[in-house]
Amino acid sequence: MARRGSQSARFTVSVPAGLLEELDRMAAEKGYSNRSAAVADMIRDELVEHRQRTGRGEVVGTLTLVYDHHTRHVQETLTELQHQHHERIISTVHVHLDEHHCLEVLLMRGPAPEIRRIGDALIAARGVKHGKLTVTSTGRDLPG
């Protein structure tokens, strides 16, 4: 338990020796100053994932789409979907990859289930060859 006024709480965890060795190796490779910092980041990462899965809180996300702009109506469909959700889509970047393919990256913010639905609809649009939604926390609901 944390003491009053304390910024950190100390707790004991028992893990197999081999797992601890791997944690120490990973922490060193990633540049953590100590294993506590590495474990705290892993806990935060799992909390973000859990909140996203359970629909708790506001999230921010990046949706990356690659599509063939020659596919009939793909640009109109993507634009229409983005306009329907303009309150959740913060920004977009459009890049011409070659004479046929475009890359579009959308920045979104809102409740996790809504961001997931918007991402799924855009990824499922005819002409989209690949799409990936990456979601993270706004940071406001994560301690230290």
Automatic annotation (TrEMBL):
Give the family this protein belongs to, as stated in its UniProt record.
Belongs to the transcriptional regulatory CopG/NikR family.
Q: What is this protein called?
A: Putative nickel-responsive regulator
Single Gene Ontology MF annotation? DNA binding
The record places domain Ribbon-helix-helix protein CopG at: 10-47
Natural source organism: Limisphaera ngatamarikiensis
Q: What HAMAP family does the record tag this protein with? A: NikR (MF_00476)
Question: What is one process in the GO biological process aspect for this record?
Answer: response to nickel cation
Any Pfam family the entry gives:
NikR_C
Cofactor-binding details, from the entry: Binds 1 nickel ion per subunit.
What is the recorded function of this protein according to its Swiss-Prot or TrEMBL entry? Transcriptional regulator.
Name the domain of life. Bacteria
Which cofactor(s) does the record list? Ni(2+)
- Domain Transcription factor NikR nickel binding C-terminal, residue spans: 60-136
InterPro entries of this UniProt entry? Acetolactate_synth/TF_NikR_C, ACT-like_dom_sf, Arc_rbn_hlx_hlx, CopG, CopG/NikR_regulator, Ni_resp_reg_NikR, Ribbon_hlx_hlx, TF_NikR_Ni-bd_C
What keyword terms does UniProt attach to this protein?
DNA-binding, Metal-binding, Nickel, Transcription, Transcription regulation
Its taxonomic path starts at: Bacteria, Pseudomonadati, Verrucomicrobiota, Verrucomicrobiia, Limisphaerales
Q: Which residues bind Ni(2+)?
A: 83, 94, 96, 102
